[in-house]
Specification:
Blueprint (H helix, E strand, L loop, with lengths): L9 H11 L2 E4 L12 E5 L2 E5 L4 E8 H9 L1 H6 E3 L16 H10 L8 H19 L5 E7 L2 H13 L7
Antiparallel strand pairs: 1-2, 2-3, 3-4, 4-6, 5-6
Helix pairs in contact: 1-6
Length: 168
């Protein structure tokens, strides 16, 4: 992908999204992002935001589907779990949804109004319990960085093949 840092880049962004079959979403205001644009992509529950030389994708990909993607050579190299530059396998980064994690933290006594010291103490006492508890729930990858058009196309193809695209 072209490095779009500092550029007005709507034409390139539109081209990349269209090639992958992702809906282009135009926002009224310019986004506070690099590159300079007012465009994002949307495919079902997945949001696509262009960064310098890659796409950032948000949405829940079940671990089993993430593993399928990782088995493809393009997926392993260009579709990076949680944006990790070391391209680790998805099982190393998979977690339950944010909502499930919040419920687990609350069940362990976490409160949103805790100050920094209380939060530190909470994690010191509960980190191992939290890690054990999250293993009981479905695991997902909630963010990817995608480095090539081939990777973007593969991501969309695998989402579609596995019925993860729900019209919103």
């Amino acid at each position: 992908m072209i490095n779009l840092a500092g550029q007005q880049s709507n034409c390139e962004i539109t081209k990349e999204l269209n090639l992958a079959g992702i809906t282009v979403v135009a926002h009224e205001e310019m986004l506070k992002t690099e590159p300079i644009t007012n465009l994002t992509g949307r495919l079902g529950e997945f949001t696509f935001k262009r960064a310098w030389y890659y796409w950032v994708v948000y949405g829940l990909v079940p671990l089993e589907i993430a593993q399928k993607m990782y088995q493809d050579p393009v997926g392993k190299k260009d579709v990076r779990v949680s944006g990790h530059c070391g391209c680790p396998p998805p099982e190393e980064w998979a977690q339950p949804s944010d909502e499930v994690q919040e419920k687990i933290k609350e069940s362990l006594g976490y409160r949103k109004d805790m100050d920094m010291h209380e939060t530190f103490d909470f994690w010191k006492i509960n980190e191992d319990k939290f890690k054990e508890e999250i293993k009981k729930y479905d695991q997902y990858i909630n963010c990817y960085h995608i480095d090539s058009q081939e990777g973007l196309n593969l991501f969309v193809q695998i989402l579609k093949e596995n019925n993860l695209i729900i019209k919103s």
